[in-house]
Design a protein that fits this description.
The structure holds two protein chains of two kinds. By secondary structure, chain A is mainly alpha-helical. Helix content of chain A is 73%, strand content 0%. Chain A starts with a helix and ends in a 19-residue tail after the last helix. The model of chain A has no long low-confidence stretch (mean pLDDT 89). By secondary structure, chain B is mainly alpha-helical. Chain B has two domains: 1-35 and 318-350, no CATH class; 56-314, Orthogonal Bundle (ABC transporter involved in vitamin B12 uptake, BtuC), CATH 1.10.3470. Chain B has helices spanning 3-32, 37-47, 52-77, 85-102, 109-138, 142-165, 200-217, 219-229, 231-236, 241-257, 261-268, 279-289, 294-314, 321-349. The chains are: A mainly alpha, B mainly alpha. Chains A and B meet through helix 4, helix 5, helix 11 and helix 13 of A and helix 6, helix 12 and helix 14 of B.
């Protein structure tokens, strides 16, 4: 027990927790924007996968992880655009569209994995994100601290969360996008371009979820088949658990990430708690939150409904 | 041509048109891979519907697709979206495998098989009942709950398999008893020699017939569809909407629960971790393409069955993932086209 506690209250554990949570947080920010504007986005899973692959491909061909990130954003937005066109232009079922895009992404990434890397399981290794040495020194603990505060991606993610929260709750655009998600007819009457705002929000979700995928891949220095591995769904769970607010969703992601980090620690010290039970935790919590047992989570009221202009 | 016939024609033409468009996309991908599309399609057809073993394998792949498509379609008819088929079929297959493995070895064939199917159905029924009752009583959305339950059920079943039921050094349960093994089709039709297709194919057709009768020929089915059309109108007419929502989701789960019979009782004779690999999501595609009608479901499942067997056949020339892409593109075109068509029809009717 003591060993477990010292393991948990350590800076290494914190670094682990953050590493696990970053892709959740990024995808969840995407989920918040999309769902707040009234478009359900279970395609997050597929967008992440595509983003991860694009990040590796971009880095592989240019040698620069920065270009990899750029490719991930573009690819994520393109994938989201498909979802946007199906849901907004064609007013089709958003859940089915999401399911189809997830299936498509699995197929496409495997197909191109064979074309570019001649493998059915993983890509070649590429360079990861450069870590800056903020605090000088060679001690193990300083090294770990540097890995957190010296990683531009982590800082960037924190900025995105704060900025998203500000944009959604404090700006005119945010007010409009919430109005579009709650009551599109009223927003339209007031001259808000409902569908244009929805397009922007879904594309933003593609940008963020793509970045989340990029983190996954660059952190591992390679793409492996199906590497998003349900993370997009955890992000959706976090959006609900965080009651559709960026800060709330990010906190939920940290909570889920914490559970996962504890599971890894428990495994290393060999405890009796089966890892599967900790895996279930985010999903069980989400069902409970949705059922209203710990403060009712209520979705934006126009979610999943295409807007029919009169 | 009257309006009804015109509508039916369009309903049938949309999926065909979508498949044609999707083939165009796959042509481009095949060309990217520097292969000839014609050659690939020729290999695909020769390996599936133009030789007896291929036909047997197509039947084997089609069987679970029919049942899982039927499960999703059943819920759809009541206006519910069951994304949880993946978890429900996992739990159902696990329950069927345990029943088959732990019944006394002397139990007669008919009784064993019926008990296995019932336990699968019941397990799926419970897995579907949970999101159903949550939706009916608390109004929480069944889509999110079924997605979450998928992960919960998989983790739970994997835990049970690994901790209590696995054969050492493997990830599967112990073999079912001899009397639970379903007869392979080649014992009646020797041309299918070597293929794993088995009599659960007839079970899936029977299930389609049963669903058709229940939904279209009984009062219960009429009420279910009424809830799907317009829940508040159904409520006003005295239908117990909450009860029907719960039941519909549970029955949909039950149908998903027997999807694994084909694999567990007909092929491997045990439950194996991760055997379903996305079948539940394919069910959504099958239901969509089959217009949520048992007959349509059979046709759509057959198409996807041919494609999924076809993927294995063409793998030597182009990556088999090509058919995954093809299937996803078909869904995208169908879902986009069908809502567009509906709007056009609606407009012209005004």
């Amino acid at each position: 027990m003591w060993e477990f506690l010292t393991n948990v209250f350590s800076i290494v554990f914190l670094a682990q927790l953050i590493r696990i949570s970053i892709p959740y947080i990024l995808a969840a920010m995407g989920g918040v924007f999309s769902e707040r504007s009234g478009v359900t986005n279970i395609a997050l899973e597929g967008i992440m996968l595509n983003g991860a692959f694009a990040a590796i491909l971009g880095t592989y061909f240019t040698g620069s992880p920065l270009f990899g990130l750029f490719s991930a954003v573009i690819c994520g937005m393109l994938t989201a655009l498909v979802h946007a066109i199906i849901s907004i232009r064609f007013k089709a079922d958003q859940i089915i569209s999401g399911v189809a895009i997830n299936l498509l992404s699995v197929g496409l990434t495997k197909f191109f994995l064979k074309i570019f890397f001649d493998s059915s399981s993983n890509s070649a290794r590429v360079e990861g994100i450069k870590i800056f040495k903020i605090i000088p020194g060679n001690l193990q603990i300083i090294e770990t601290i540097n890995q957190i505060i010296g990683n531009p991606f982590i800082i960037f993610t924190a900025i995105i969360v704060v900025l998203s929260h500000y944009v959604i709750f404090k700006t005119v655009f945010g007010l409009r996008l919430r109005a579009v998600g709650e009551h599109p007819e009223a927003a339209d009457t007031l001259g808000v371009k409902v569908n244009r705002i929805r397009y922007v929000c879904v594309l933003l979700s593609g940008c963020f979820a793509g970045l989340g995928g990029a983190w996954l891949a660059l952190d591992q220095h390679q793409f492996t088949d199906g590497m998003s591995n349900g993370r997009g769904f955890i992000a959706i769970a976090a959006v609900i658990f965080g009651k559709w607010s960026p800060v709330g969703a990010a906190a939920a992601c940290l909570l889920f990430g914490c559970a996962e980090a504890i599971q890894i620690t428990l495994q290393s010290v060999g405890s009796g708690i089966p890892s599967q039970f900790i895996q279930m935790l985010p999903y069980v919590l989400t069902i409970i939150a949705l059922a209203g047992f710990i403060g009712k989570s209520t979705s934006p009221s126009a979610i999943g409904k295409p807007y029919e202009c009169e | 041509m009257n309006d009804g016939k015109k509508k039916l024609l369009i309903e049938i033409l949309t999926p065909i048109f979508a498949v044609a468009l999707a083939l165009l996309v796959s042509d481009i991908l095949i060309l990217l891979y520097k292969e000839s599309p014609l050659k690939v399609y020729k290999i695909l057809l020769e390996g599936t519907i133009f030789n007896p073993y291929g036909i047997g394998q197509v039947i084997f792949k089609t069987t679970p697709l029919i049942l899982v498509g039927l499960s999703v379609a059943f819920a759809f008819r009541t206006g519910l979206f069951n994304i949880g088929a993946e978890g429900q079929l996992y739990l159902g297959a696990f329950a069927a495998a345990l029943t088959g493995a732990y019944l006394p070895a002397g139990t007669p064939f008919i009784i064993t098989v019926i008990l296995c199917i019932l336990s699968g159905f019941l397990a799926g029924f419970i897995a579907g009942f949970i999101p159903g009752i949550l939706k009916a009583k608390l109004g929480s959305h069944e889509v999110i709950n079924t997605i979450m339950l998928n992960f919960i059920i998989m983790a739970l079943v994997n835990y049970l398999v690994v901790t209590y039921f696995k054969v050492p050094e493997t990830l599967h349960t112990k073999d079912i008893i001899e009397n639970a093994k379903l007869t392979r089709l080649y014992e009646y039709f020797p041309v299918f020699k070597g293929s794993a297709s088995n009599i659960s194919f007839f079970l899936s057709l029977l299930a389609c017939l049963a669903v058709y009768i229940v939904l279209w020929k009984t009062k219960f089915g009429y009420e279910l569809r009424a809830v799907g059309f317009n829940p508040s109108a159904a409520e006003t007419a005295g239908v117990n909407v909450k009860k029907l929502i719960t039941l519909s989701m549970a029955i949909s789960g039950g149908l998903a629960g027997i999807v694994g019979i084909n694999f567990v009782l007909g092929y491997k004779y045990y439950f194996e971790e991760g055997f379903s690999s996305g079948l539940g999501f394919m069910g959504i595609a099958v239901a969509l393409l089959g217009k949520n009608h048992p007959g349509g479901v059979i046709a759509a499942a057959l198409l996807f069955g041919i494609l999924s067997q076809g993927g294995l056949v063409i793998n030597s020339v182009v990556p088999k993932e090509l058919v995954d892409i093809l299937q996803a593109v078909v869904i995208i075109f169908v879902v986009a086209a069908s809502s567009e068509v509906r709007r056009l029809l609606f407009k012209s009717a005004k």
